[in-house]
Write a structure and sequence with these properties.
The structure holds 2 protein chains of 2 kinds.
Chain A (H helix, E strand, L loop, with lengths): L19 H8 L4 H11 L11 H10 L6 E6 L8 H8 L1 H15 L3 E6 L7 H17 L5 E6 L9 H8 L23 E5 H13 L1 H5 L2 E2 L2 E2 L1 E8 L5 E6 L4 H8 L4 E6 L5 E4 L24 E6 L4 H15 L5 H18 L7 H15 L3 H16 L1 H5 L1
Parallel strand pairs in A: 1-2, 1-4, 2-3, 7-11
Antiparallel strand pairs in A: 5-6, 7-8, 9-10, 9-11
Helix pairs in contact in A: 1-5, 2-3, 5-6, 5-8, 11-12, 11-14, 12-13, 12-14, 13-14
Chain B lengths: L4 E5 L2 E5 L5 H7 L23 E4 L6 E2 L10 E3 L3 H16 L15 H8 L18 E2 L5 E4 L8 H9 L6 E3 L6 E3 L16 H5 L5 E3 L3 H9 L4 E6 L7 H4 L9 H11 L3 E4 H24 L10 E2 L4 H10 L13 H17 L6 E7 L3 H6 L14 E4 H10 L21 H4 L6 H15 L19 E7 L14 E8 L1 H12 L7 E5 L17 H16 L10 H11 L5 H7 L10
Parallel strand pairs in B: 1-5, 11-12, 11-14, 13-18, 14-15, 17-18
Antiparallel strand pairs in B: 1-2, 3-4, 3-5, 6-7, 7-10, 8-9, 16-17
Helix pairs in contact in B: 9-11, 9-15
The chains are: A alpha/beta, B alpha/beta.
The complex binds flavin mononucleotide, iron/sulfur cluster (4 copies) and FE2/S2 (inorganic) cluster.
């Protein structure tokens, strides 16, 4: 089975979309149940955050009883260094629009929104043109589905689904309590499917080629391909579509500069993997090798030996301290304490054992924070501090 | 009703209604889970996280206040993981908090302090963040002090101001470590739509929002032998004060309160209930006059519905939010301000005192009354009509400072001249009370008969529904009121400004056509006022209301126009309701204000 963990390129996402009209008209004539089954058997998991099975997500919203439902495309793309959703929306927008309309058909929604990151305002004219063309075709085939763009406010936390709803409702972008979940109570308190741009683009592939084509990519628990934003100490930064399940060692062979000491998988809210773990780490949702998941961007940042891991962590914590919405205690105060804490240790104002106290604090944040932001600070914090403890102290 | 579900809490099986949160389920079974951002009056926020509990099988902990129980759930409220996490959270809150308890107004009645003492947080392991923060204290309002260094960002105040009051004076600004509770453009509290109602104070778990207290000023006045210090007590104080001094909610402590005030050294202890009765005479007459002008004279200048004006929080609210409706307000001052104006005129004359030497103090369930007493127009006696306004809480502090064992006090009576009241005056303290008192008198004035409600109890205007309606049909009126024959007097009662908003909007849209409306800024009326004992809850307010109505039932006189001191003041001083002297001393004007 080792062969499974090799790096394999794929090319689905950006492949031509000229046949979107056909894909749309064919699929809205299939029954919601059939489409849900197709998605479930593809084992597609969300590409925006927690990796929730997309078929199940649509199923739950389809089962919710309500006159009004919504489909929302999450294009807030706030993770520093990632821009794959932007690429999808500018290169293959019709895939996303088609997927949204099929989702509307499946769950019984007549309205869709694209929550577009504020900084992506320049995409708006082209996207609106595409939407115009798309809706024109919908009318032709008698499909009642409208798509509107909602411009985001620029805060990272607004990418969190419930904060995103709040922000769309004109309120302060603060995450809500869960339950209730969006599938029963989302935007405007109505059943809502919210998916990442890339997730929607993958559903297009599935609806076009069938679940098997997708399922055959990747490994168990981590099916299909995924866009990765490669950055840091690499000779070839950029966006790459790769099959899930590759080992990190393979990845570093391909993208490293020969001196890679660690890779941050999944951006600020992901994990840092040190060199000694490269070969035992697979990139996927629930690998046999590790439990690494792929938060938001599929961001892969490579660090070579010239990098101070203290500075890396310092940067991440700075980011979280600012981007926490500030409502819940563990995240708001915890981020401040972690940041001030590592600085104090570095300066010798606190002894090295203080790092252990901070590790326990990070764990508490993971257990008790209200949303994914605060819960995931421990990922980078603990993986960096545990693997590079000396760099934190000296 | 849906079938009950079973869960276990700390191993004990409990059966509960579906939809019950873990917190409620625990409370029902006698398990206490600490909370900070949770409040019974407000929607759930789930942001402080001190209520986290463990659900067996789940890695992450769960906020008990925000999570509904599910069949078969096994909840642990005191596992090692829970305790460690909770302790961390309290430590974090304290690291950001200016924990200067001995110098804090809330020392001894602070939810954060209580939690810290339960968890015995004796060390400061985490870095103290306070020195890095630019916390500010806003002392510009005559009613409220807002000290950001004591704020734990639970947003109870924000939710209170939005959900109960619909004012939205307080908001959350900024994010991350900069996140804070503030006002429109970070202006001071006296410079925004804030109505000074004090509900945010009542709902704040810490010392971040407190009333501006005037305790020392009053002690100084009492100590000054050249001064004659007169005190009045509002109707709702007598059913709240006990809570601060060891009694259960709903205890009536009128006589003990009078005795305590005498012991504190006030020269005269009199009753705002007296001017409440007087308000009924003035406001009732004003209503009937307005009805006549509208129904008979067809005077377009005169506006209906007429709205009551005894709640200064409501007054400031309408001045900001519906400035085009100020003509609808009764011109009557609040009972507090009527009392103040009379203390330095009528009372001074009768007692042969120099009004300049009189210090007039009032004990109020209210923080908006502090602002009201401070309004520039409230100088009709030639002096500041009310010098100091103390809340129920401040009075309790003075009683404790004076070393008075409140429980042991013998009941005493109010001093004469402005100390007599009827049951009608007392019920001013509850939502619907002003309406009920007004109807008891107005109906009798017009028909010569009692209001057609059993035992004078006008049930439709009682209770805690946000908006209540009642109508009274006038039949066989006395000759001079013949024009009212057959008129159905339509009344409404709203308490909590969010309900006031509903009623005002319905008037504006033409959806409703009332004649007379009672508005009270605070939930439950004055008994739930912003100056009343903390905590407050629907249950506590219900008990206070029961006490108010019991007080009413126990009074020999229950109609304002029968108050002998009211009869006397019209005979000796005021002449008649809406007379010239009344106009000068008991009525006022309003000011349109900006809406931010
Ligand atoms: C702090 C935070 C930021 C997030 N930002 C994004 C984002 O920018 N884009 C996105 O698609 N999902 C983001 N998510 C994940 C969303 O909450 C949500 O899970 C996702 O949109 C669901 O789509 P999926 O099932 O297609 O992955 C974020 C989550 C958190 C906790
Ligand atoms: S975890 Fe952080 S971002 Fe999430 S709700 Fe709490 S404070 Fe806000
Ligand atoms: S708010 Fe509470 S904990 Fe803070 S200083 Fe005051 S009494 Fe102490
Ligand atoms: S006093 Fe009343 S109006 Fe003012 S901020 Fe507090 S709750 Fe809002
Ligand atoms: S002022 Fe009081 S109620 Fe408001 S957030 Fe701060 S601590 Fe909570
Ligand atoms: S009381 Fe539950 S989170 Fe604050």
């Amino acid at each position: 089975m080792t062969t499974n963990y090799q790096l394999k390129r794929a090319d689905f996402i950006f492949k031509n979309e000229n046949d979107w009209e056909e894909v749309l008209s064919k699929n809205i004539n299939r029954s919601p149940q059939e489409l849900i089954n197709e998605l479930i058997s593809s084992e597609l998991k969300g590409r925006g955050g927690a990796g929730f099975p997309t078929g199940l997500k649509w199923k739950l919203s389809a089962e919710a009883v309500d006159e009004t439902k919504y489909v929302i495309c999450n294009a807030d793309e706030g993770e520093p260094g990632t821009f794959k959703d932007r690429e999808i929306l500018s290169r293959v927008p019709f895939k996303v629009l088609t997927a949204m309309a099929v989702c509307g058909h499946v769950i019984g929604a007549k309205e869709g929104y694209i929550y577009l990151r504020g900084e992506y305002f320049f995409l708006q004219p082209e996207l609106n043109k595409a939407i115009g063309e798309f809706e024109y075709y919908c009318k032709e085939i008698n499909l009642d589905f409208k798509i509107r763009i909602f411009m985001g406010s620029g805060a990272y936390i607004c990418g969190e689904e419930t904060a995103l709803f709040e922000s769309m409702e004109g309120k302060r972008g603060e995450p809500r309590n869960k339950p209730p979940y969006p599938s029963s109570c989302g935007y405007m308190g109505k059943p809502t499917v919210i998916n990442n741009v890339e997730t929607l683009a993958h559903t297009f592939t599935i609806f076009k080629y069938g679940a098997k084509r997708f399922y055959d990519l990747g490994v168990q628990y981590s099916r299909g391909s995924k866009l990765f934003s490669v950055s840091g100490d690499t000779p070839k930064p950029g966006i790459y579509e790769l099959e899930l399940g590759m080992s990190l060692a393979d990845f570093v062979d391909e993208f490293g500069d020969g001196d890679t000491k660690a890779v941050q998988v999944g951006g600020a809210s992901g994990f840092l993997v040190p060199r000694k773990r490269f070969s035992e780490t697979a990139i996927g949702f629930q690998g046999k090798l590790t439990g690494i998941s792929l938060p938001t961007g599929g961001s892969m940042m490579l660090f070579n030996s010239s990098r101070s891991m203290f500075n890396v962590l310092d940067n991440y914590l700075e980011f979280f301290r600012e981007e926490s919405c500030g409502q819940c205690t563990p995240c708001r105060v915890g981020c401040q304490q972690l940041l001030k804490g590592i600085k104090a240790v570095k300066r010798g104002e606190k002894n090295a054992q203080y790092l252990d106290k901070l590790l326990r604090l990070a764990e508490t944040m993971q257990y008790t924070a209200k949303c994914g932001l605060g819960q995931s600070v421990a990922n980078s914090f603990s993986s960096i501090v545990e693997n590079f403890r000396e760099e934190m102290i000296y | 009703m849906a079938k009950n579900i079973k869960i276990t809490i700390n191993g004990v099986t409990v059966e509960i209604e579906p939809g019950t949160t873990i917190l409620e389920a625990a409370r029902q079974t006698g398990v206490i889970i600490p909370t900070l951002c949770y409040h019974k009056d407000l929607c759930v926020a789930g942001n402080c996280r001190v209520c986290v509990t463990e659900i067996v099988g789940q890695k992450r902990l769960t906020a008990a206040c925000a999570t509904p129980c599910e069949e078969g759930m096994e909840v642990l409220t005191n596992s090692l993981k829970v305790r460690n996490s909770r302790k961390h959270i309290i430590e974090l809150l304290l690291s950001e908090h200016n924990a200067d308890c001995t110098r804090c107004y809330k020392n001894g009645n602070c939810e954060l302090q209580l939690l810290a003492s339960e968890y015995k947080i004796m060390t400061q392991d985490f870095i103290r963040l306070v020195p890095f923060k630019k916390y500010s204290i806003d002392m510009f309002s005559p009613s409220i002090i807002k000290d950001d260094s004591k704020c734990i960002r639970c947003q109870r105040c924000v939710r209170t101001c939005a959900e109960l009051q619909g004012v939205n004076a307080l908001t959350v600004a900024h994010k991350g470590d900069q996140m804070k509770i503030t006002t429109f453009f970070e202006k001071t509290m006296n410079d925004v739509v804030c109505t000074n109602c004090g509900q945010c104070i009542n709902h704040c778990p810490t010392g971040a929002l407190v009333e501006k207290n005037y305790i020392e000023e009053v002690w100084d006045a009492i100590a000054d032998k050249t001064r004659h210090v007169v005190v009045q007590t509002a109707p709702a104080v007598r059913v709240g004060l006990g809570e601060e001094l060891g009694f259960e909610p709903g205890s009536r402590v009128t006589g003990k309160m009078v005795a305590a005030l005498k012991r504190l050294g006030f020269d005269a202890v009199m009753d705002t209930d007296f001017t409440a009765d007087l308000t009924i005479m003035e406001e009732g007459t004003e209503l009937l006059t307005r009805l006549k002008k509208v129904l008979v004279d067809r005077d377009e200048e005169v506006k209906l519905p007429m709205a009551t004006s005894c709640s200064p929080g409501w007054i400031k609210y309408i001045e900001h939010m519906y400035p085009d409706y100020l003509d609808h307000l009764s011109t009557c001052k609040s009972p507090q301000q009527m009392f103040g104006a009379l203390a330095k005129t009528y009372y001074a004359k009768a007692r042969n005192l120099d009004p300049e030497k009189i210090v007039s103090v009032s004990i109020m369930p209210c923080t908006a009354k502090k602002f009201e007493a401070n309004r520039p127009e409230m100088h009709d006696s030639g002096y500041r009509d009310v010098d100091y306004v103390l809340t129920t809480r401040e009075l309790a502090i003075m009683i404790k400072q004076a070393g008075i064992d409140f429980m042991k006090l013998e009941d005493m009576h109010y001093d004469r001249l402005m100390g007599e009241s009827t049951g009608a005056g007392v019920i001013f303290g509850a939502t619907g009370g002003v309406m009920e008192a007004a109807l008891r008198t107005a109906y009798e004035l017009v028909t010569g008969r009692d209001v057609p409600f059993e035992n004078l109890n006008i049930a439709p205007v009682r209770g805690m529904d946000g908006v209540k309606e009642a109508s009274v049909k006038i039949e066989n009126p006395l000759k001079e009121w013949a024009f009212l024959d057959g008129v159905e007097l339509k009344c409404a009662v709203a308490h909590g400004l969010v309900n006031a908003k509903k009623v005002m909007d319905s008037i504006r849209s033409g959806e409703t056509s009332y004649h007379f409306i009672e508005f009270m800024a605070c939930p439950g009326g004055c008994l739930g006022g912003g100056g009343q004992p903390i905590p407050t809850s629907p249950e506590i307010r219900r008990k206070r209301a029961e006490a108010i109505y019991a007080e009413d039932e126990g009074m020999p006189l229950r109609k304002s126009h029968l108050n002998p001191e009211v009869i006397k003041i019209y005979k000796d001083f005021l002449d008649k309701p809406l007379g010239e002297k009344s106009h000068q001393l008991l009525h006022t004007k309003y000011t349109a204000r900006e809406r931010f």
